[in-house]
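We read letters as residues; the fold follows as tokens. A sample entry reads:
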Amino acid sequence: MLKTILAISGKPGLYKLVSRGNRNLIVESLDANHKRQPAFGADRIISLADIAMYTEEEEVPLRQVLTNIKEREKGAVVSSLDYKTASKDELFDFMAKVLPSFDRDRVHASDVKKLIQWYNILIENGVSDFSEDLQETPGDNIDDRK
């Protein structure tokens, strides 16, 4: 599911991939408006499935971090912390409960705010299955292009 949820640099919130055009993607905002708009190649677009969080040992896929938050918050939006007004220490305390070994040097307070914001957006829009997609689509694997 996270493969079709996109973050676009310079644009707030998250977007769902609706269609592909010749030189763009058609995306729909995950908010109350569900506004559709094009996203072009010049935009920095990344799928949530491709994002990972730094830890002391290795990088942990975002889907695992979101699952940890979901378990901690019992499937509801984050209500234990107001990410907009929280201090760096409060954000890092929250992150330590979700991902104890996160790298405090490479993960910034703004990253934790964005993580909580994205989690809340996903939950509010009924996206709560953060497990890895078991079926690959053609073209997902470079070896398929031989």
In short: The chain has two domains: 2-48, 51-124.
